[in-house]
Design a protein that fits this description.
six-stranded mixed β-sheet, alpha/beta, 6 strands, 5 helices
Length: 151
């Protein structure tokens, strides 16, 4: 069965993703650590001890080729892509082998600036348009994933 793996610690579209995945009969899992317990009725929540990347490594251990992952963590996304996962951000951007290297480089450069005492722009305030963009792209990804799983 196709799975949806959600890096739920800072995911603003958990409920929307769960609703959509239920329409496609995709089995969802929420991943969080003990300091961010995110649970929903009738949804499997996998809670791991708090620690650097502990959620990421647990999610990766469950991921199977063709599963869908929702995360905003580019490092986790890169590892999921390498394992054959389909990755989408909470804003509806699909992360692929074609764009992940550039995003990781940008993240690295931003971290260098911050370590040197500089400032970088944070994320913009979330809008309803962001939710609509996510829903549109996520539905496309669900349909494509189901089609490829059936082949």
């Amino acid at each position: 069965m196709l799975q949806l793996l959600i890096d739920a610690d800072a995911c603003p579209v958990v409920d929307l993703a769960l609703f959509i995945s239920s329409q496609y009969e995709i089995e969802p899992f929420l991943f969080c650590d003990t300091s961010h317990r995110i649970e929903r009725d009738n949804i499997k929540t996998i809670i791991v001890d708090k620690g650097p990347d502990s959620v990421d490594f647990k999610l990766l251990s469950v991921l199977k080729r063709g599963d869908i992952v929702i995360t905003g963590d580019y490092g986790l996304a890169a590892m999921c892509i390498a394992k054959g996962g389909i990755v989408v951000t909470h804003n509806g951007k699909e992360l692929t082998s074609d764009n992940i290297d550039q995003l990781l480089a940008y993240r690295f450069e931003s971290a260098k600036i911050r370590r040197a005492g500089g400032r970088t722009k944070g994320p913009k305030k979330r809008t309803e348009e962001n939710n609509l963009e996510f829903e549109y792209k996520f539905r496309q990804i669900c349909e494509r994933a189901i089609f490829h799983r059936e082949e």
